[in-house]
Amino acid sequence: MPDTAYFDSCLFIELLQQDDPERFAACECFRAEAVANRLVIVTSAITITEVNKLPESDALREDQSKQILAFFQNPYIAVRAVDRQTAEYAHELTRTNGLTNLDAIHVATAILSKVPVLYTYDDPKSKRKGLIRHHLKIGTPPLRIEKPPGQYAGSLFDEKHQADKPDEPKELPPATPPPS
Q1: Please, are residues 126 and 150 in contact by the beta-carbon 8 Å criterion?
Q2: Residue 171 maps to a domain
Q3: Among 33, 70, 138, 165, which has the minimal tally of Cβ within 10 Å of its Cβ?
């Protein structure tokens, strides 16, 4: 059975934008592990909404949008719905841990999915306190919230990563969560 790891939206954004070569290499390393069936990447359905533009434009072109949506249909990405249980837990996390609404949904989804680690680059920034400061402070057992290690190379928009390649079928249905 493959390992599981939760990806915050910023990891998917890094795969697209490639702003930081070291971060990109780390994210791509995980994606390669997932393609090889050694890792299942878990994320919330809200991630699909958060991953919605590239740095050189205010909005995605339609073809780029379709590529992103197809990418989230890969069998190694388990997209979890934000159901009532997740929303109520996230509500509690905002109150008790000072998380932003979206960060709380990510943390709640990771914990309820029983994922041992949530990967993010969300360090403290100006008014935002960031997710990484909550490492091993939320959940039972405590959720690891870490920056991803590792390296690789390539881009989601590179030909080798297109959803119509044999290891990334274009017409797959979205991943569904296992029963709780």
Answers
A1: no
A2: no
A3: 165
How far apart, in whole angstroms, are the C-alpha atoms of residue 1 and residue 31?
Answer: 17
From CA 82, how far away is CA 176, in angstroms rounded?
12
Say if residues 109 and 82 touch (Cβ distance below 8 Å): yes
Query: pLDDT tens-digit profile of 89-123?
Result: 999 999 999 999 999 999 999 999 999 999 999 98
- Asked whether the bond before 141 is cis by omega within 30 degrees of 0, the reply is yes
Per the domain annotation, does 180 fall within a domain?
Answer: no
Cβ atoms of 25 and 150 within 8 Å: the answer is yes
The residue segments making up the domain with residue 42 are: 3-161
Give the span between the Cα atoms of 162 and 80, in whole angstroms.
Answer: 23
* CATH code, domain with 142: 3.40.50.1010
